[in-house]
Amino acid sequence: MIRIKESFLKSKFPILYYYIFREIFSPFLLCLFIFTGILFLIRSLQLTDLIVNKNVPLLNIIVLFSCIIPRFLELAIPMSLLISVIIAFGRLSSDSEIIVMKATGISLSKLALPTLGFSFICLLFALSISCWIRPTANAKFSQGAFEILKTKASAGLIPGIFNELGDITIYAQNIDQDLKKLSGVIIGDRNDPKNPRTFIASYGDLASNNTERSIILRLYNGIINEGFFTEPKITSFSVTSISFNPESLLNNSNDIKNKKLNEMQLPELWQNIQATQPAKPASKELVEEKNKLLVELNNRFTIPLSCLGVALIALCLGIAPPRQSGSWGLSASMLGGILMILVYYGLLALANALCGQGKVSAWVIWLPNIMLLVLGLYFFRQLWSERWIAIRFKFKVRLH
What we know:
- By secondary structure, this protein is α+β, with helices and mostly antiparallel strands.
- The protein is about 60% helix and about 15% strand.
- A hairpin with a 7-residue loop joins strand 3 and strand 4.
């Protein structure tokens, strides 16, 4: 319990700020590590497939997948802020320190200031990730995936067996690794399940296109069997080609060609938006392109700015009377906070889907943030007016 005289507290509020800041900081780091680890673990299940089945060196995989950590950090920061603030103020409430602070004349606004200050630091941290670190990491991820594909396509193919590259199966009787030439080639292409293709060629060679980030397999003197065996369509060719991209190796959901939207820095996004200012009447393709750019631009700021609303909600959920702030009260507060932020992420995903399809304006993405902030301000107003305790008490009675 804080044992400081009222006069000293009134003249030394920064000490109180430091005390609350410290209470939030430790659980924040722990939660950030846990949430980021969980999100990363889900994605890193592909590590086993890349190492065991595709013989990609472990060091290359570690470097490649370290590039996806920023996108998980960006999602984990608001969740970590929520849990850490609830834990901090739940402990202060259970030890009756909130009551002591109020008895010495410290208003709730004084308690909110260090919390909002910490949330502002989280906001800047998340903003630096979304606007600078994540686009850079995404670009390195795409480039690293392309380099792995080049290595796998040129040096990882084994003669005399069927080599799997995503939806492509490659068989070559002989492979010259130095010249990147294959002879006695059979290729099964399952990219289109409704129209599978089989290539049979005398020989072929491999080349890379660094601009398009793709591997090109040129085939010479062969035939193409399209469709199923019941209704085959056979075509002969002297020269044909098949392109691969890192999606076939890493199962990445985004098409990797040139520079994607999530790889662009803010100046590049803005330049592209200005370049798509159409002359009336605007074409449908130009409008769709501009809408995608606006959606990406707005997405760089939505999750970081949610930290302010999250901090206010967590502050209110954490403060409770000592009799309600035990393990049950803290668990209920954390469960309520997690449900709220999951609803926020769900609404944000829905807004992104609608905006991405062009059904609504790109500014609709901000609605979940506005709802979160309004809810936080409403909760804080109830807390300020002392009605929050009555609300929590009624909630407990109904549960029992």
